[in-house]
Amino acid sequence: MNDIFEGLTQAARLVVTLDADLAEITLRSLQVTVTATLIASAIGLPLGAWIAVNRFRLRRIVIVVLNALMGLPPVVVGLVVYVILSRSGPLGVLGLLFTPTAMIIAQVIIITPIIASISHQAIRELWADYHDLLISLHATRRQRIATLLWDGRRALMTASLAGFGRAIGEVGAIMIVGGNIDHATRVLTTAIALETGKGDFGLALALGFVLIALAIAVNLALHVLSGTERGSRW
Amino acid sequence: MVSPILPLTLENVELRRQGKRVLGPVSYTLDGEGITIVMGPNGAGKTSFLRCMHGLERLSRGRMQWQGDEDRIRARQAFVFQTPILMRRSVLDCIAYPLILDGLSRREARKAAEREAEIVGLKVTLNAPANVLSGGERQKLALARALIRAPEVLFLDEPCANLDLHSTAEIERVLAGARDRGTRIVMSTHNVGQARRLADDILFLSDGRLIETGSRDVFFAGPGTPEARAHINGDLLP
Ligand SMILES: Nc1ncnc2c1ncn2[C@@H]1O[C@H](COP(=O)(O)OP(=O)(O)O)[C@@H](O)[C@H]1O
Ligand SMILES: [Mg+2]
């Protein structure tokens, strides 16, 4: 109880004084996860829509694989990315290990299946509603997907947010591929793990509160943005 | 003048679903002008017949042929479903949608949609989400959306099935107007009065088969088949 109170006061102090380390770590967290979410959305949203709209031979298998990938243990993803990016690995020459880019790659792998799977679900429902109309109006395949993505944008945003939430709180994979290097790859979650390990619960909790506030703020911001659009009743 | 996509010919067309024959074999040629009304009891295959002609159903057997290239064939016909399919957009954007697909700017498309809403007598807040509309208004939206490309052929599947007399009369007025502007209309109904008012020709379906075809006057003067006779007499009884 004392720890929590101390954590809160310390968090407040760090935020109010715009603590340089905290700002740096927070910004890096945001930068890594926002980038990962954008990339994963760029892959996952159209992929989910594509699977929802097209009947192809391996469709069922792709869906099963996607769902299986959703449950992928992040630590294992981290390990695999580590092996691939390590100096002797296939992409070792790129020198990406222990950089924010490596962390982004790991997060993209972790959340793309989540985003694809949720958007697939949403778009499939919309497609069932729209199917006859879009066929009747002779919409091209590209137009159909664009229409479904646009009209399903709220559900898709939820999918992206779910991915963001998963990524911003992830620690295992980015610890492995990022290395939690101070002023280089340290982010909120890895810093929390570190401070907890050192026994500095106050600072760890302070970072934790910032992390939670961040997640809530991003959700709220998007909620407000989408709520003020016209036709918000959809 | 662009070359027409009519006539449409069906030769021994058959639709089977889950091992059951739902339509056919039907042979029929759609051509000429005016309004053709498709009648028949529930389950006779009216919906299947219309969907089939519009290209929404895969034929199990037989041949179907429109004129011209595939893109024109598809773009020059429209379909109004029994239950209007609403998009998650504003009323105006729903109506404008076909023109957006055709590559018009949103501004132009919405302007055309406003005119079309006026023509079908859709007097609602056009910027409201489409799902706030009543049944009759939804059907008018669907009609405006179907007419906005000025189709050569318009299919309607029982568009007035759930509407009150006033909405029905308004839709009939719009359809008569579209016919006068040269749109070939094929519409199913189980409302015998509506068939009498609107039809130039009647098709009568029973058990998936086209058992009568002919002009309205000939049909109503005395249907040749007992099924058709029973249908109109049954509907006319109080
Ligand atoms: N996809 C389908 N699967 C199985 N049966 C169907 C399917 N579509 C239509 N049917 C059947 O085909 C028959 C004709 O249906 P329909 O064309 O809707 O008739 P109508 O519009 O005249 O009432 C009905 O008996 C219906 O149950
Ligand atoms: Mg029907």
UniProtKB/TrEMBL annotation, chain A:
Coiled coil: none annotated. It is found in: Cell membrane. Keywords: Membrane, Transmembrane, Transmembrane helix, Transport. It is a multi-pass membrane protein. It comes from the Bacteria. Residues 26-222 form the ABC transmembrane type-1 domain. PROSITE patterns: ABC_TM1. Gene3D superfamilies: MetI-like. Pfam families: BPD_transp_1. The chain crosses the membrane at residues 32-53, 60-85, 91-116, 163-181, 201-225. Belongs to the binding-protein-dependent transport system permease family. This is ABC transporter permease.
Automatic annotation (TrEMBL), chain B:
GO terms for molecular function: ATP binding. Keywords: ATP-binding, Nucleotide-binding, Transport. Residues 8-232 form the ABC transporter domain. InterPro entries: AAA+_ATPase, ABC_transporter-like_ATP-bd, ABC_transporter-like_CS, MetN_ABC_transporter-like, P-loop_NTPase. PANTHER family: AMINO ACID IMPORT ATP-BINDING PROTEIN, PHOSPHONATES IMPORT ATP-BINDING PROTEIN PHNC. Belongs to the ABC transporter superfamily. This is ATP-binding cassette domain-containing protein. It comes from Defluviimonas salinarum.
